[in-house]
Each structure stands twice: as structure tokens, then as C-alpha cells.
Amino acid sequence: MIKNLINKIKEFDTAEDKERRSSKLYGKAALYNTPNQITEAAAVVAGSGYKKFDVYTPYPLHGMDTAMGMGAPKIGYVSFILGITGTSLALLMMIWMSTIDYPNIIGGKPFFGLPAGIPITFESTVLLCGIATVLGLLVLFSKMPKLNSPLNDTDFMKHVTSDKYGLVIEADDEKYIESDVLKLFADTKAYEVQDIYFRESNLTTKTPLFDKKFTGAIIGTAILTAVVSYFTLNYVLYDVVPFDWMRQQGRIDSQSKSDFFPNKSGMREPVTGTVARGFMPYEYAGMPDSAVKLLANPVPVTKKSLERGQDRYNIYCSPCHGYFGDGDGRMRDQFPKPPSLHTEKAKNWKDGNFFHVMTNGQNVMPSYAEQVSKDDRWAIVNYIRALQRAKDAGETDLEKAK
Amino acid sequence: MDYNKKPLPPVVGKIGFGLLGVGLLLMILAFVVDTKRAYFDYLWMYMFLVSIGAGSLALVALEYLVGATWSTPFRRISEFLASLIPLLVILVIPLIFGMHDLFHWTHESTLASDPLLQAKEPYLNVQFFLIRTAIILFIWVLFYFLFTRNSMKQDISGDPLLTKQSIKFSAVFAILFIFTITFIAIDWMMTLEYHWFSTMFGVYYFAGTIVAAFAAATFCSVMLNENGYLVSKIKNNNYYSFATLLFGFNVFWAYIGFSQYMLIWYADIPEETFWVMMRMKGSWSYFSIGLIFLHFVIPFLALLPRSSKVKPKLLVVMSVWLLLAHAYDLYWIIMPSYFTEGFVFGWSELGFLMFAFGLIITVFKIRAAKTNLVPVRDPKLEAGLNFHLN
Question: How confident is the model at residue A139 (pLDDT cuts 50, 70, 90)?
Fold first, then answer.
């Protein structure tokens, strides 16, 4: 008897009833058994003039969009526009990289060769087009993520995600009249009809994206993945052969042996008589007298050439000769001290004499022909003259300068 | 299913015979006036017929192999087009007589003075060349008869086991087709410049072949269906499938063509680039740029929108367009070996093109007169008639 009573109370006050008393009607949901039934039902519902209805199936059904009266899909335009964007971005990127940012001649091709750019353009087009299609479908057209749909966690949703085909007509549709809807569902051979209720307080508008736990889990995973991959790749797998970080290469290192060539030398010799680009042989090697007599300074004394001479002098000459030609450079006490450039002898030297010493070398001073170009050597000569003159500056010079 | 066989309108036969007759006259005249040029034109026409014939047979096999149902109501059309294959055996004979004019490598003097040719001689000699051609044509003829025999038998008996058997044939043919189409492309077109080689050449021709075969099938299917010669005017997504595959294979053709060009451009080695340089000489450069636009860019843009894939008129235009584009493509492959200074398109070329189209139409007409235009008792037909994509 008590059991009966409890049952009666339960019947009287089921969770469903409680729900019904405290919540609003979202709509009427019907479940169907076969794809053909649901397609026909969708066509009937659309034909009856309902606007706020949707169909839920476990998998995409062909012909559903026409049955629901949805017209031609617009997603193609999104794909097309983003595809074109991908094409243009890829082309602009490559043109900028290869002609403006870092122009390189590769294999004698122009800086930007269109054939070489086509594969990247193609990939970029497909990538943007694909992403646009997927995101466009989900976000623009399906308005996802719908996190607070009243259908969530209902019995209806369980069915339409596994074994049944469902149709929901929302209660706030203009044409919604309960008896009409029930009749329509009955006419289209619905297997089961349910009312869907919801509480407005349950419809949270908060996105779980900013939930502490959720964000924490994402950041934690990211850090963990980064740390684990860093240590795995750099310490655990570093010496494993498939990950040898390109240390094993088939090339021949310079100065090393190679069995490929008959003389077993890895390096090739230039063809006999090869001359380096811009190289001019020095005619007066070992002939200081002729050099002094015949060489004339081709570099005019200008501000520019003097600055160039100063620059080169400070780099190549000053370590021994000192910044002002006194022979007290930074190498003093470690190296024989060179003579001062301000002696009478040096002052009376012709330009060609300095040039010859720089080109040919003298005593412990080696030739600087390799390091300093011909014009730069003449510019240094000009600068030395300027140094010599500056050392002799007297009070009268100030008057003259005025 | 309500199929009533109607004969094709007489105008089809008239167009076919007209083109065939005028084409044949011009062909004979061409051989009298300039034999060498006529042989090159003939090779061009022959390869076009190979594309339609062998390509259509490949489509028939493809339908069996992948179990497609959407194309079953239109399979007869590809079967009719494949009827060119037995004729290819006869049509190859003039080419064999013209080998000396067409192929430099057949000359004894060239062989004696060319070390590269001597190295290729074990493969590239007349006897082996003819044996290969014979084997290829034999395979095509054999499978043409196997497929059509089963299909015809099924019209009477309706035996589903015939479909099963054809599926087995198609599995074998799919592999053989890839080899045969590659070798026919290498032998009859690549060896025109026997120094040149491209491992993508077979695929390039294959892609063009499938585009041409699909274009021919699309044209005939849409025309016949729109005018009510097939089962109760199918209004489903079959056109969409034709257009999608036409579009897809055309993009594939462009992909292969571009890949071949890009690798040659990148490597930039003289034994490969000269073939491209031949196609950039004089007016050929305009012809080459034209190929990109006529065969790829314009059909791509025309067939890209979803809506254009179901417009019968547009499909008719684009399939004829792509058929002509394939002829253009073959002209681009073959003729620079003859017209070395710049392209020429005269009455002689036009005559051969007319003959090719006349022959295709006539063969189609003759086959269509005897046979049902729809495989009426094919087990997949019902599914094909009810075919829906969306």
C-alpha cells in the first residue's frame, strides 16, 4: 500500500512535471525512423509555411536542403573570396620576399619566377579556401558554437545523434499552434513526439572558453607539449640517427680528401690562367724605383676620398702605425715598431713610394694588396699626406683658414 | 522505367556523313598536295580518335570498377564512342606507311650518326615499335568486345552476374589502360622528338584523354536526355556529376601539364628545354599561351560555380569547347615538329578535324541505330535513375 502511495506521489510529481511547471516550452520535437520519412516530413513542414524549424540527423542526408526549402547554398562565395585572397596573399608574399626583402639569384632564374611560385600559390589558395569553407559553414551559416541550445542533454538529442532522425518546430514560430503541429507530425508518421522545455536561467551566455579550468588545461597542455618536445628532440633523440640534425652530409668539406677525383683532393684547382674578378696584376713588384718614378696618384683629394682613406687607414694601418702615423700603434711592444710617417724622409716620399710599400710590402710589413683595393690604397696615401700636414700645423694656419 | 527506343533524328546522320565526306576529300587532296604535312595531320587526327575511343572505354571500365550508379543510364553513350577502337586498327595502317616521314629515328642515316639514338635503339626500333602498337590495339579491341558483349547480353537476359564479370574485366583493364595509354603516348607522340623525354608525358596525355572522353560523353548525354531519347528525361544530379568530373579532370590536366613545364623550367637543362623552346618560337608562343587559357582558365571559370554545373546549355557548350581544346592540345604536342617556325592551320588541318568529328558522329549513329541507348536491364540502372547528391 505504501509502495502504491509512493508511486502515486511520484506520478503526481515527476521530475518532468516539475520541469514543466517552472520552465518555458521551446518547441515540439518529432522523431522519425527512416531518412525518407524525415525528408518528406521536412518538405511538408517547409511547405506549411513554418520558418523556425530544424532537422537533426546522425549523418548528412542528401536532398535535405532542397526538402527544407533552403535554396542554393551561399558558402561557395565565401570559399571563392577566401580562395582568391589566398592566391593574392601567396603571390604578394613571394614577390615581396624574393624581390624586395631578400633578393637572391637561384639557378640563373629571375628573382621572382612565376612557375616556381605556382605550387605555393596553389597550396595557399587551397588552405584558405578549405579553412574558409569549414569555418564559414560552422560559424557563419550554422551559427556555432551553440553552447546553450535547449536541446542539449535531452532524450531527443541522444536519439538524433545515434539512431533516429529528428525534427523540431520552435514554439515561437508565428504559425505554431499545438494541435496543428501534432496533426502534422501524425500525418508524416512520426515515431514519437516530445515537448522540449527549458529554463531561461539555464541558458548561460558565458562562453566556457574563458572558464578558468578550461583555459588552464589548454595552457598547461601547451606548456607540457613544448617542454616534452624540447627535451625529447634536443636531449633524448639528439644522437639517434634518423634525427641527426643534418650532421651527416654527403658533401666534400674543403681541404679534405676525396676518392672521387683522380688526384684525391677534395678541392678543385682553378683553370690555368684564371684571374679573379677585378684583379689587376701589379706591374712594379720588386721594382720600387720604377714605381716611384712612374706611378701617379689617380685618386683626387676630396672629402669623400679622405674619409675613405681614414677609414681604411684606421682599420689596416693604425694597429702598427698608430692613429696619427707616429708608429705607436696598439701592437707596440709585441711587434717591431714601424718608423714614424712624420720623418723628413717620409715627408719627401712621392705618392708612388707609399703605394709601392703598401702593395709590395717592405721589411716586416707584408703586402696589403689582398686586403685593400687599389683605389683604397691611393686614398690611404691621401690620408697620410693629410696626417703629415696636420702634424706640421702652425699658428699661421688658423689665420689662413679664416 | 519507361524506355522506348527512338531512332536518332536523320540530321545527325547527315551532319556525320557530311563532315566525313568533306573531310575525306580534303584528306585525299592533302596527301596529294603535301604528303609529309598530311601525315602529321593524320597523326594528329589519329591521336584525337584514340583519345575519344580508348578514353571512352576507360570510362566504361571506370564505372564498373568503382561501382558508380549515376553514370549507368549514360553508359551506352561511352560504349558507342568506344566503337572507334576497332576502326583504330584500320586507321593506323596509313601511319605505318608514313613512319619515315613522321619519325626521324627511323632513318638509317640518323641512327648511324647519333650516339644517343644508338643507346635508345633496343627500345626505339621499327620492329619493336610495331609490335608494341599491335599489342596495345589488341588489348583495346579485346576489352572493347568483352565489355560491349556483356552489356548487350544483359539487355536481353538481365543477368546480374554479367555485371560482376565486367567488374573483374575492368580491374584488369584499369591497369592495362594506364600502361597502354602511356606507351601509345610515348611511341606516337614523344618520339617525334626522340631526344626529348618526360616521365610525365604519359600522364599528361592520359589526363587529356579522360577530359576529352568525358566531354564527348557529356555532350551526347545532355543532348540525348534533353531531347527525350533516354529514360523519361532524368532531372537528378547526373549532370552535376558529369560537370564535376569534367571540371576535376580538366584541373588534373592543368596540374600535370604545369608540373611537367615547371620541372623543365626549374632544371633548365638543354635536353629537356628544347621541346618547350620549340613551342615558344614565333607564333607558337601565342599558341602556347592560348592553350593555358582555352584548355584551363576559361573552362575552369565557366565550370566553377555550382549553378553552372546543372545548366544543360552551358554543359553542351563547355563539352564541345573541351573537345576542341583537346584537339588544340594534341596539335600543340604534335605539330611543332612539322611547323617549326610558327603554327599554321589551313584547309588540310581543317579537313582532318572534320573527318575525325564526322567519323565519331557516324560511328555513334550506326551503333545507336541498332542498340538501346540505355542499358535497360542493368541492375544498377534503377539506382542511377534515382541518383541524388544533395
Answer: confident
Query: Cβ contact (<8 Å) for A63 and B390?
Result: yes
By the CB < 8 Å criterion, does A65 face chain B?
A: yes
* pLDDT of res. A350: 83
Judged by CB atoms closer than 8 Å, whether chains meet at B261 and A115 is answered as: yes
pLDDT, tens only, B104-129: 999 999 889 999 999 999 999 999 99
The rounded distance, in Å, linking the Cα atoms of B246 and B303 is: 9
Q: How many CB atoms lie within 10 A of CB B307?
A: 9
User: Taking Cα atoms as reference points, which of A279, A366, A374 lies closest to residue A270?
Assistant: A279
Residue A61 has pLDDT above 60, yes or no: yes
Choose among A331, A337, A357: nearest CA to A346: A357
Distance of alpha carbon A209 from alpha carbon A213, whole angstroms: 9
Q: Which helix (H) or strand (E) holds A170?
A: strand A165-170
B223 φ, ψ to 5°? -60, -45
- Alpha-carbon span B251 to A177, nearest angstrom: 53
CATH superfamily of A288-401: Cytochrome c-like domain (1.10.760.10)
Quick one: cell of B290? 592560348
Q: What φ, ψ does residue A169 adopt, rounded to 5°? A: -105, 125
| A69 and chain B in contact, CB less than 8 A | no
Q: Which runs of E-coded beta strand occur in B138-193? A: none
Closest CA of chain B from A73, distance in Å:
9
Q: Look up residue A243 and give its DSSP letter.
A: G
